[in-house]
Amino acid sequence: MAFLIGGANSAADTGYDIENSCRFDESSDSSLGITFGTPTEGKAFTLSMWFKMCEMPNSRAVFGGRSGYENIFLQDNSMRWDWNNASSGTINWAPKLRDHSAWYHFVLAQDTAQSTDTNRAKFYINGTQITTLRGGTTQTWPAQNLETGYNQDGVAFYLSSYNGTAGNVTAYYSEVAFIDGLQYAASVFGETNDDGIWIPKEFKDDVTFGNNGFYLEFKQSGTGTNASGLGADTSGEDNHLVVGGLAAVDQCTDTPTNNFCVLNAINPTEANAGFTEGNLIFKNTLNSSPHHGLAHGTMAVAKGKWYWEVRVDAIGGTAMGIGAEEVSAFGKNNVAGNQGISLFNHGYTHQRGSDVAVSGDTTYTTNDIIGVALDMDNRKIYFHKDGTYFNSGDPTSGATGTGAISFNAADVTMTPAVSNYNSGICNVNFGNPAWTVSSTQADDDGYGNFEFDVPAGFYALCTKNLAEYG
Q1: Which of 52, 148, 174, 299 has the most CB atoms in a 10 Å sphere around its CB?
Q2: What topology does CATH give the domain 273-469?
Q3: Which of 267, 295, 272 is nearest to 284 (CA)?
């Protein structure tokens, strides 16, 4: 199956662009809910969504309701589909879902009127229909003509929960379509491009949404149940969803057609690490030095100029590092443990295992925002605190490197990295912040939403920019 992953775009132009997504967080009980009315056809529906997972979930509801205990959820890193709390059927699909850098496209399509049981429920990942089931589990297809609770009058359903406040996932959703009465194939919603990548395509005018159908494009950021809310239905059916545990800041531009960097929850260096808010907030609860929790970005660069920010939500212990790490030599305990450069809160840079004092006010503390400008073309890195660059740094100075810290001139590939311990919290902004910025600054191409000005010629870490400059 073809994946759309970080950096996989072969060209900046994807043809059909998706503008927005919505960030859901388990700790905030984030969900969107709706109570269905009389269906067009209660035996059939199609659910299409783009989904970027942010955790290794177990029994987390991608789409579900409590009335009839109908649930489509992630279990043991794969997808499970239940009818009537498994009493009328349970299918456990085999493929493992483990990529936190990728946007997956899921299509789940039901038509219980089909005479062949395997045609009554179809699951597609990135355009490929899944026909293999998970071993060691009991599989039961829904009975013919079963009117499941997925599309019935008076039944409440939720994205990212089974009742609004339980079973919630931490993930990004984009381009979510629920179609009442018809079983569509994945090819209605996406296509494979010339590079073999499964990409979205415009489908709104090619489907019939039905009485209970809805289409979520996340073009609005309000919290009301109306056309201005995050749950606004743009299908024309006006089936707006109720917003729960979401705020305007959860409207994002991290989408299947412009995938942004986040932190990699698969590869923290300590088991005590925790990730929230779309893998942008990183907390480490380990209390003993030198075991700093370390988290890396999901995108790495070998050339180009890149910018991101980190808000310090809590120092916690006595050391926090913010910087970049060479991907071939990840540090075991903290940023720059081997081949990286970081700025620590006590006023030192840590480069390849050595502490070097930096002149000027280089310390930082809770609520400070540290900006990182990484110049891979000239092998320079610049840091600012709340908009003022240390050592009178000038990221646009090129090879001169005014105020920069230089690193290995050999060919290296670097990724963003943060480290902390003793309940330190790093809140990383790659362009879709988990906090409300006060100034709304974008890069030269208009991508990203940053607190401070992005230096000329530096860009947000996203696939559109990687295709152009990376």
Answers
A1: 52
A2: Jelly Rolls (2.60.120)
A3: 272
